[in-house]
């Protein structure tokens, strides 16, 4: 079927009209996806096959398509660079610690998944729709990362940067709100401990020197048992990290 | 001193010759650094002040210079993207797990520090040279990351990509060697336990489901005490991660 798989030939309506019924329906589906993507991206996809891969979750039944995990790996790295650059320029007087924290507030799984759903990627992701677990999972954030990877391969870094700014950061990230949100994992963990009659303590386990800076290791201890540890340049951050890890480990993350 | 701080005016020899002695020496030092940088980068620095910041460790006595931590944050993200892209294209049939592991073999602190020293960045880094601890520390890898950040701001992504390929990956990374190096943190930790009469065990602490995939949490337990945990999609990787964390925490990393 060279017609289907060559570069965007399904756009050639004159030739598509000549196709037999089942092929015509398949091609129409592709034409529809192409239009949806064009509106979502703000430009027409160059290499359409790349975007099809980006939208394909492992659970997809269309086995002739590669799944999006490799593109997700690439997109994650590219998104990290673009958001890193954005914050570096937006906050010229903030420390690297602040920038790192802001970045993790933007590119964390929950946030990316929420953005992906708002962008309409739940509808476009190709996955096993009979698996009701997947419907409420965070695979759509992975689709978004894979999409960033596809844009990067298709159009290069600078165009990807524009896409991320215009279609992700501007419409969906409220920077002022994020600035004011304290990542308060400790409070959340204390709340859980209280409700479940557990004793929660944070213990300083270690103080090390690293390139002339002190690094603190703090452990989250529940009923005398060490659950998780966190490391940072100050005790407050270290205990927040330990609490965040513990929340993940105990399955308390929303 | 507008002459010194305006853009690379110290290159104007006719004007430099007119300077009084102490300024002439300062400017000569800058001219020397400019030449060293040109040879190291493979192109002349555009915005020289950026590169001076990239080379300045926190411990530097030259207090009028900003230190390189913000640029290190930026460079780390850019380097992650460039190396991510490089591996994605070099290994078209490898899984994202393999690519992630290869990347961490390339951009880990020890490796970056070794490369920085081979590139001559120990000599160029501006730091407190009376602090003998810093001399053997890993601050030069940080300089290298900051330098990548400076190149990115000065010349953009594509030029930075060329710089990283030609001046970092090609000369200093032996990909075939890296492919064959198993990250064997467990062996290392067992060696330490043996030598110090400790009992080391790896325990499966938890099995969770994440988007339809199983995630294993394995703990490194020394003399019955949980030291560190690692999470991964299989038990082997999870225990390697736990071992790696434990090596860091116990201060056994080289």
Automatic annotation (TrEMBL), chains A, B:
GO cellular component, one term: cytoplasm
Gene that produces this protein: rnc
Keyword Plastid belongs to the record: no
Keywords of the record: Cytoplasm, Endonuclease, Hydrolase, Magnesium, Metal-binding, mRNA processing, Nuclease, RNA-binding, rRNA processing, rRNA-binding, tRNA processing
Active site (record annotation): 76, 145
Catalytic activity: Endonucleolytic cleavage to 5'-phosphomonoester
Amino acids binding Mg(2+): 72, 142, 145
Species name: Chitinophaga flava
UniProt subunit comment: Homodimer.
Protein known as: Ribonuclease 3
Ranges in coiled-coil conformation: none
Domain RNase III, residue spans: 34-156
Subcellular localization(s) per the UniProt record: Cytoplasm
One Pfam family cited in the UniProt record for this chain: Ribonucleas_3_3
Any GO molecular function: ribonuclease III activity
Gene3D superfamilies recorded: 3.30.160.20, Ribonuclease III domain (1.10.1520.10)
EC assignment: 3.1.26.3
Cofactor(s) named in the record: Mg(2+)
BP GO terms, sorted: mRNA processing; regulation of gene expression; rRNA processing; tRNA processing
SMART domains: DSRM, RIBOc
Role this protein plays: Digests double-stranded RNA. Involved in the processing of primary rRNA transcript to yield the immediate precursors to the large and small rRNAs (23S and 16S). Processes some mRNAs, and tRNAs when they are encoded in the rRNA operon. Processes pre-crRNA and tracrRNA of type II CRISPR loci if present in the organism.
NCBIfam families registered for this protein in UniProt: RNaseIII (TIGR02191)
Domain DRBM positions: 184-252
Family under the similarity heading: Belongs to the ribonuclease III family.
Record carries keyword Metal-binding: yes
């Amino acid at each position: 079927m060279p017609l289907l798989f060559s570069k965007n030939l399904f756009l050639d309506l004159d030739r598509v009209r000549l196709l037999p019924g089942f092929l015509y329906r398949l091609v129409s589906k592709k034409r529809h996806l192409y239009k949806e993507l064009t509106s979502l991206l703000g430009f027409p996809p160059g290499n359409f096959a790349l975007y099809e891969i980006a939208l394909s979750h492992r659970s997809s039944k269309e086995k002739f398509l590669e799944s999006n995990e490799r593109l997700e790996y690439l997109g994650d790295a590219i998104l990290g660079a673009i958001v890193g650059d954005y914050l570096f320029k937006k906050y010229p007087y903030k420390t690297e610690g602040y920038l790192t924290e802001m970045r993790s507030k933007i590119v964390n799984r929950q946030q990316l998944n929420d953005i992906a759903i708002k962008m309409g990627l739940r509808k476009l992701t190709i996955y096993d729709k009979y698996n009701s677990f997947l419907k409420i999972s965070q695979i759509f954030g992975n689709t978004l990362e894979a999409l960033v990877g596809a844009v990067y391969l298709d159009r290069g870094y600078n165009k990807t940067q524009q896409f991320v700014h215009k279609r992700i950061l501007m419409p969906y990230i409220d920077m002022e709100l994020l600035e004011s949100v304290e990542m308060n994992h400790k409070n959340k963990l204390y709340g859980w401990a209280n409700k479940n009659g557990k004793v929660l303590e944070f213990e300083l386990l270690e103080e090390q020197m690293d390139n002339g800076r002190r690094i603190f290791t703090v452990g989250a201890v529940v009923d005398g048992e060490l659950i998780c540890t966190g490391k940072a340049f100050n005790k407050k951050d270290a205990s927040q990290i330990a609490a965040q890890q513990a929340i993940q480990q105990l399955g308390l993350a929303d």
